[in-house]
Design goal:
It is a single chain. This protein has about 900 residues and is mainly β. The chain is about 5% helix and about 50% strand. Strands 53, 54, 55, 56, 57, 58, 59, 60, 61, 62 and 63 form an eleven-stranded mixed β-sheet that branches. The longest helix is centred in the N-terminal third of the chain and has 8 residues, at about 20-30. The protein is globular. The protein starts with a strand and ends with a strand. Residues about 1-60 have low confidence and may be disordered.
């Protein structure tokens, strides 16, 4: 096979110009090895004779062992190699130069390049910007050149020439030095991006606009702190050759850290956590540097953090001041995202309205302004400092001189002063139990036992304070938790025997030993596993081997499965997890399910969780495992509906194909007694299969942004592991659904049913009240062709045999808009399905006949019965239907089969 065409004889000899045919190109591109398309001519000797051209197979770098040039002038003073560098990057040359003969004049050997025969030769520079050359008349020690990199403009080119210019600094030649080249080696890296520059963009995790991030301002935090301050950012990338490097530089770099230091090029999107963990007070600055090969310049993001000594929870933070006028202001250092209270007391006889202006700053930059007016002698305002705020300015304005007694600091606290039950008023100072708005202090050494569902705003544990939460009890803490020395929590959770329990640890550093310690006290065995998305086990599923390492850490917001032979009360001890916990979701071609959970000591509100979960998982749905029935039921996270998500339980979510994550926050907790408690969706149709009082269901919804077929608004079916409890799902030709959302009517799906053993079950449709008027539902029995009116009979009893069946098909229909109708809606339904025309008259109008036409041809004219589905088999095509309604023929109604 010919590898090149055309020979050109010049004064410098023979130059071969590479023309590689496509067959060789394709074979070579399949190899992730050095690929350098080379044709070269070596012109040696005193005469310009054509030398043979060697063509390498390119599986290894081009290597030339020895070239000896006695007379440089005979080849126009140049040794030339002609290359094709298509899809090549990082082209390097290595060689060794020497000379064997002394001369009267100084000669040099200089590396040069050009991109066409019409261009001038350009010097190659080393990394320090110096010309790459050897000079004679120095010691005759061989000069070695290693990995000299050609300029980037030489990458991905059809034609590149490199040469060594051999010349003298003197017009008087004074003889030739016999120049020797040894071990010439040319190599390169394969570049699958055809020389395109790398692209990296960085934005805040929750920024839907994906604006470029240039600076991260951390909250001002107290020292000491419980958990470092963190920010989540997303790194988007294209054309990454190897990996993206992440580092932090600057004088305060030790106080900042990144959760990862590199990102493999195969990930187009990656979320990372940047943490601020100062060791001393002050303003701290550093730079987050993100770089990659062929990135035009590194991305630099400024990091700013502020830390100050923690102030006492009962300290008055107002500076000493003597107010002598009707206008006055305070400037108060504050911590970010922290609750404060400003109180004013005036003597009733001296009361006057006072206007107040609150102005929040980050250093000298204004952030937020709010106004209020004192309308009574006693005034109290609850204030939450914004994220990033460091200072609050309070300005007071009045008509006359201001005469007040005021306070600014933490809200008034309620203190537990004796160990015992939280609900016992005798254990509280002033015998007053706290409520959801209160700051609560647990005094030194006090052991508080949470025996009922309780709540508070902020919790402060003094030295050696301990809070013990009984199993199945809710402890709602809406804001922060502050720990002094040796303070901690104990959280109890009940595990049921002879079944899998899906758990989520509430403690920041829980270990697997908590299960083995319990087993050592009694004759019981437990098994702990985690779900490894996309990584199959020996049993051909995605569950891990049994976790036997007692030091294995249970991470908050990550789910685990525990099996126990006996009922068991497990106790988690330590510090509760941070107020915000994120979980990176994994998606593989084989598996997209991830086991995550609620790490807080109170249920989560789906309504509050919506903002941080919307568009991050399939169907915005979580799959809760019912440990009694051993099946999974979906809950859709919807901003218009509040569903409670159980505390300390884990659940499956189906990750999107693109990289995403879920963030759980303490602010997502359901506020006790603020709405009706519901554990399931009521805004979606619920198709359920039940056995006795146990049920499993699938959810159906409608959204005009969805598509027919599986999309991001749907969620696949996740099957349980019960032999006696059935599973129900919707299915089309390619997918099985637990959540199905469609854009419009008609909605038609097969209903799949699975059960491990023979049993009688009930199939029913719930939440019918959410349907608009004149929507009709049929359940078709595909075995006998009967259509069951699910608007009149919403239940079917079925004798299921072990295995899978899809004998039923659901049809959800909207009535036609027909001009001849006596009513706003006609109550007439016309649709096609599986090569059939289907028709139903609800009976609101008198339909005497139905006519079917294809073009000018009448297929049939038939009488129709009220309340009965009319079915007619048709060939694929376009048809027209006319109805004789109330004595008049309707306009054409188009129908496609």
């Amino acid at each position: 096979m010919r590898l090149f065409t055309g020979w050109k004889i010049t004064r410098s000899g023979l130059v071969g110009v590479t023309k590689i045919y496509s067959e060789i190109m394709l074979n070579l591109l399949k190899k992730n090895i050095y690929i350098l398309f080379v044709v070269f001519a070596l012109l040696l000797g005193l005469k310009a004779n054509a030398q043979s051209v060697e063509v390498y197979d390119l599986k290894t770098p081009l290597v030339v062992a020895n070239v000896h040039i006695k007379d440089p002038q005979s080849i126009d003073n140049r040794l030339i190699y002609t290359l094709s560098t298509l899809r090549q990057d990082n082209i390097t040359l290595s060689w060794q130069n020497s000379y064997t003969k002394k001369t009267k004049t100084k000669w040099f050997v200089r590396l040069q390049y050009r991109l066409s025969e019409d261009e001038q030769w350009q010097d190659v520079k080393d990394k320090n910007g110096r010309t790459v050359e050897m000079v004679t008349m120095q010691k005759r020690i061989p000069r070695k050149f290693d990995n000299i990199v050609l300029p980037q403009e030489c990458n991905n080119k059809d034609f590149v020439q490199v040469s060594w210019l051999m010349d003298t600094y003197s017009k008087n030649k004074g003889g030739y030095p016999d120049i020797v080249f040894k071990n010439i080696r040319i190599k390169s890296d394969f570049d699958k991006f055809f020389g395109q520059t790398a692209v990296v963009k960085v934005h805040n995790n929750n920024d839907d606009t994906k604006a470029d991030l240039t600076q991260i301002n951390f909250n001002k935090i107290p020292l000491p702190y419980v958990f470092p301050e963190t920010k989540r950012i997303v790194v988007l990338s294209q054309n990454i050759r190897d990996s993206i490097t992440i580092r932090i530089s600057g004088s305060d770099a030790a106080y900042f850290s990144s959760s990862i230091t590199s990102i493999e090029g195969k990930y187009p999107s990656k979320t990372l956590t940047v943490s601020y963990a100062p060791k001393k007070e002050g303003h701290h600055e550093a730079t987050l540097v993100i770089d990659a090969k062929k990135l035009p310049r590194p991305i630099e993001i400024k990091l700013n953090g502020i830390c100050a000594t923690h102030t006492s929870y009962d300290a008055d933070l107002l500076p000493d001041a003597d107010i002598q006028t009707n206008k006055f202001s305070y400037t108060i250092p504050v911590f970010s995202n922290t609750d404060y209270q400003y109180r004013i007391n005036q003597e009733t006889s001296k009361y006057q309205p006072i206007n107040i202006k609150y102005k929040w700053y980050r250093d000298a930059t204004p952030m937020f302004v709010m106004y209020d007016t004192v309308k009574k002698a006693e005034y109290c305002a609850a204030l939450l400092s914004p994220n990033g705020a460091t200072t609050l300015e309070i300005e007071l304005f009045a008509k006359d001189k201001i005469d007040i007694d005021d306070y600014f600091g933490s809200p008034k606290t309620k203190t537990m002063i004796k160990s015992g039950q939280w609900s016992d008023v005798r254990n509280w100072k002033d015998r007053e139990l706290p409520n959801v708005e209160d700051f609560v202090v647990i005094d030194k050494g006090v052991n508080a036992k949470v025996d009922k569902d309780v709540s508070c705003n902020t919790l402060i544990l003094l030295d050696s304070a301990h809070v013990s939460i009984n199993k199945s009890k809710t402890f709602y803490i809406s804001n922060n938790i502050f720990y002094n020395k040796n303070a901690y929590f104990t959280v109890s959770q009940q595990l049921l025997s002879s079944r899998w329990n899906y758990i989520c640890s509430p403690i920041n550093q829980a270990h697997a030993a908590i299960f083995s310690l319990l087993n050592s006290k009694r004759d019981n065995e437990t098994w702990l596993m985690q779900y490894n998305t996309g990584h199959k086990s020996k049993l051909d599923d995605y569950w891990s081997e049994y976790i036997t390492d007692p030091q294995f850490k249970l991470l908050p917001a990550k789910g685990y499965a525990v099996y126990t032979h006996q009922d068991m009360e497990v106790k988690y001890e330590g510090l509760l997890c941070p107020s915000s916990v994120s979980v990176q979701l994994v998606s593989t071609p084989e598996d997209c399910w991830n086991l995550v959970g609620n790490p807080y000591t109170a249920p989560l509100s789906s309504k509050k969780l919506f903002e941080d979960i919307d568009g991050r998982i399939q169907g915005n749905a979580i799959m809760l495992f019912d440990r009694n029935t051993k099946v999974y039921n979906p809950v859709i996270i919807d901003a218009k509906e509040e569903v409670m998500i159980p505390s300390l339980e884990s659940f499956f979510v189906e990750a999107l194909k693109t990289s995403s994550e879920i963030t759980f926050k303490r602010t997502h907790q359901y506020i006790p007694k603020t709405s009706d408690q519901s554990w399931l969706n009521n805004n979606y149709l619920n198709l359920s299969v039940s056995k006795g009082y146990d049920w499993q269901y699938v959810l159906l919804g409608m959204n005009n942004e969805s598509e027919y077929g599986f999309d991001d608004l749907d969620c696949h079916k996740l099957f349980g592991n019960s032999e006696s409890m059935p599973d129900v799902y919707l299915k089309d030709e390619s997918d099985e659904y637990s959540v199905c959302v469609v854009p419009s009517y008609p909605v038609i799906y097969d209903v799949g049913l699975y059960i491990g053993e023979d049993n009688n079950v009930e199939l029913s449709l719930n939440n019918l009240s959410i349907l608009p008027d004149y929507v009709y539902i049929f359940m078709e029995n595909k075995t006998d062709g009967a259509f069951i009116d699910f608007c009149k009979q919403d239940k079917i009893n079925i004798d299921l045999h072990s295995g899978t069946t899809d004998d039923y098909r659901i049809h959800i229909l909207k009535s036609l808009d027909i001009e001849q109708s006596k009513y706003e809606q006609s109550g007439v339904y016309l649709w096609s399905d599986k090569g059939r025309m289907l028709f139903f008259n609800e009976g609101l109008n008198n339909i005497e006949k139905i006519q079917l036409l294809q073009g000018d041809k009448t297929i049939f004219v038939e009488n129709v019965d009220i309340g009965k589905v009319f079915s007619y088999k048709l060939n694929k095509g376009k048809y027209v239907v006319k109805l004789l309604m109330n004595g008049k023929w309707s306009e054409n109604i188009n129908l496609s089969i």
